[in-house]
Write the structure tokens for this entry.
Amino acid sequence: MKDEGLVFNVQRYSVHDGGGIRTIIFLKGCPLACPWCANPESRKAVKPTFWIKNGKKEKIGEWRKADDLVDEVMKDEIFFRTSGGGVTISGGEVLMQADFASKLLKEFHQLGVHTAIETTGAFPLDHIKKLTPYLNQVLFDLKIMNPNRAREVIGIDVSYVKENLEFLLAQEHIDVIPRIPLIPGYTTHIQNLEAIADYVKSLGIEEVHLLPFHQYGSSKYEYLGWNYTMKDVPTLSAAEIDNIKKIFEDKKVQTNIDGLE
Ligand code: SF4
């Protein structure tokens, strides 16, 4: 297990990304390239990134010792306990720093704190296996099911995604919540949504969470000096979201509209 990891944000008092009041620890590093990514500063290697914000150069990512981070987060333990909340480790892609995440989760687990991760399952199984003994909940993103399109658009191997999800579902102590970012032009094609609905149904999953597209990350691309191809893409209307919900509900999969992707 690794004692030190690269963290780019610690967000307290979150009511997204797991139950109750939570602290979200965002780990730096993600091998994928989702064009809609709302945390582009987290992408690429596990090393700090720089951006220019309001004319000032800022470093994104700080190396943190696991023990120090746990001590900091545990100051909010009272909120976790009284609200049924806990700690969620997000990214980036959490599996890119699996050893560090494992160390953190083990410590929180030993302290009796509810633990969750957000992941896309982008790595071989040995990565997630380091985390599962200490996890209560996994928020598992399903994006594009066609293997060629998934590789071409976001650079993910769908066979890893399926392997990870199916392994997690077999762990009785873990609550697995599949989440689907609804991204116009990428994930919202009817064939993709039907493929996701059929797949989760085949695994016995009865509910998914839907994460509608938003533009909250767009200014970050300017700070980074990166091209943001989704800049002019409108958010989905209520009617479009209802139509998407119906695709799942027609296949007897319930939907829940969730927080931010
Ligand atoms: S997996 Fe998440 S962090 Fe990585 S590129 Fe996609 S949206 Fe961004």
